[in-house]
Write a structure and sequence with these properties.
299 residues, alpha/beta, Rossmann fold, seven-stranded mixed β-sheet, disordered N terminus
């Protein structure tokens, strides 16, 4: 009975959350519908370029079985991350969501957030990594940002959405840079053991149930070389911003993030140690976000 009463409320909240983001994008000079239309057309005249479906077929793993947790609605999309609508709106949504982290950020908020993450990582990871894995890479914003910080590195992005990966591949081509894209779960990548110097998870963990979050820590530990680093940047459950957030706004947030309560309840530091890492450091890199860095014990 409780679920049947809450569903209409959450459905309304999802619609309102989406409209709020579209309006916020407009206030920082981003025309959400036009940006999405341009991406769909890829600069051509057709409303939706047939090249997208060809790239989707090329990048998708046909034998992949999606975990149940990934088949829920996310971010006000009924199909979650498994649709072109979700994929083509990731970038504009990121700019809108991060526009108000700092009062003067505006359209540069997303880039500034990623820079704040990389600054913490560079301060604590003294040796530049040569092999980097970006878990839950989405449409490649985090992956290409890592490539920019570490131009000498070989960077691989893993994501469960082939739609997101098709966008990532396209952006990679536009920027004339190199990256490898893999359609796989972050908790079972299929990549070789001890292949990477740095495994990054940027804005991934708040979208995971605890069981998947813990499994991904274990997979990251397997994938890292001795002395390698796991770096996580995400929402900070200890931030006063969330503690002081008006209940209605918090409801809007939770309506688009089905695992947010599980994330806030997860003792991430303890689980990192349990997975075989040294005790992590935790650094606030914005008023709303934290960077967690843990090292694999060196030989």
């Amino acid at each position: 009975m409780a679920c049947s009463r809450l569903n209409p409320v959450f459905n309304l909240a999802k619609q309102q959350a989406r409209q709020m983001m579209i309006k916020r994008a407009a206030t920082i000079g981003i025309d959400w519908p036009q940006e999405v239309a341009n991406l769909c057309a890829r600069g051509g005249e057709m409303a939706f370029s047939p090249q997208w479906d060809a790239e989707l077929a090329a990048i998708a793993n046909p034998s992949l079985t999606y975990p149940d947790y990934y088949l829920r609605p996310f971010h006000a999309y009924e199909q979650g991350n498994l649709s072109w609508e979700a994929a083509t709106e990731v970038e504009v949504a990121a700019h809108a969501v991060h526009a108000r982290i700092w009062p003067d950020a505006g359209a540069q908020g997303d880039a500034r957030l990623r820079q704040s993450y990389h600054a913490v990582v560079q301060a604590q990871v003294s040796q530049p990594p040569q092999e980097i894995l970006d878990l839950g890479c989405s449409v490649g914003m985090s992956t290409l940002a890592l490539q920019g910080v570490y131009p000498q590195a070989r960077v691989t992005g893993v994501d469960l959405s082939p739609y997101f990966l098709a966008i990532a591949h396209y952006r990679c081509q536009q920027q004339q840079t190199q990256a490898t894209w893999i359609h796989a779960p972050a908790e079972a990548t299929g990549l070789p053991t001890a292949q990477f110097d740095l495994v990054s998870a940027c804005l991934l963990y708040h979208e995971l149930p605890q069981s998947a979050a813990i499994a991904i820590l274990q997979e990251a530990r397997r994938l890292l070389r001795p002395g390698g680093y796991l770096t996580i940047m995400d929402m900070n459950p200890g931030s006063a911003v969330y503690a002081q957030m008006p209940p209605y706004i918090l409801t809007l947030l939770k309506s688009t993030e089905p695992y947010l309560d599980e994330y806030f309840a997860l003792d991430l530091e303890a689980e990192i140690v349990e997975a075989g890492f040294l005790p992590p450091t935790v650094t606030a890199n914005s008023v709303r976000h934290r960077t967690v860095i843990a090292q694999v014990p060196p030989l």
